[in-house]
Amino acid sequence: MSNAGLTIFDGEVLRSIDLKLPELEHTVTGAQLLEISESKVSESLSGLSLPPHLKEAAISRVSSGDEVNFRRTDFNSQQASEKLGVFVSAVADALRDTPIVVSILDGSTLKLFLEDEDDFAMLAENLFTDLDEEDKGKLCKSEIRKALLHMGVEMGVPPLSEFPILDDIIKKHDADGDEELGQAQFAELLQPVLQGIADVLHEKPITIVQNVEIFTGSRLRKILADEKTLKCLVEKMISEESKGKDSQGRADLIKSLIIKNGKELGLPPLSSENESVALLYDNIFSQLNNREKGSADASTEEGFMDAVKDVLRKFEELLETTPVYSAITNL
Known about the structure:
Blueprint: E1 2-3, E2 6-9, E3 28-29, H1 30-44, H2 52-62, H3 67-72, E4 74-75, H4 77-97, E5 100-105, H5 108-115, H6 117-131, E6 139-140, H7 143-151, H8 166-172, E7 180-181, H9 183-203, E8 206-215, H10 218-225, H11 227-241, H12 250-260, H13 262-265, H14 275-294, H15 301-321, E9 324-330
Antiparallel strand pairs: 1-2, 2-5, 3-4, 5-8, 6-7, 8-9
Helix pairs in contact: 1-4, 2-4, 5-6, 5-9, 6-9, 10-15, 14-15
InterPro entries: EF-hand-dom_pair
Organism: Eutrema salsugineum
Protein name: EF-hand domain-containing protein
């Protein structure tokens, strides 16, 4: 699964890997077989070196937990092919449970923003608004770092820990300190900083590998299919959320319930930094607002439960047709 310098590996490509080994004149040791297996898997994953957790999972399974003896053992051709299959299956299963996303940052995404004045103006405005939490209309120069953090890998900015040259770029453009800037000044300062990052990445691209969780609505589907579990879950959520909030509108209560209990429901965590997730929530919550304006059905307990189910079904339907992913950790 790939898109514009970003590739998600969920193990599917490994299910059809060729498990044949070159003709062996002699036996092969377990140590040699591990090297061959890792090389074959890496080749199928576009040359990606196996992250440690995947490599460890595969070695543990193929060696039955005894790596030392496995490395010393000799295998004939048939045995080696079987062990190769076990190694590949272990990696594929691990990727199915926790896929990885590989992003190649070469400056092209940043250049797209910089080349389109309207896109850049909107980006700078959104960043300024997000960072101006007190609505002062002013931000310190030092907030440029936070703006870059907000943009993140999805917008072409590498994690600061992986891009130490950023300090030099910030110093070069005097983008640090307590001097306060208005929105237009902030945008003027942000532009050359992004250009500097794009130029460096163009000369020396960075590959970022992250664990991701893909949300397809499967967990939510199981919850919706079990009326008893769903009712107990919603009643528990309502009890915890409605304490001291009697004046809260039904639509707002449903939104709050879903956002705070998203993990238990199998929903992706809401984040303004993940555009696809933010759009998913905006789409469904806007429909919820329209429903409350045009109907009073949710005023009863039964009606409220039906409203919650309706919202969850919409999440399930959209996630089934358009799964979203959420990054967990950098590898």
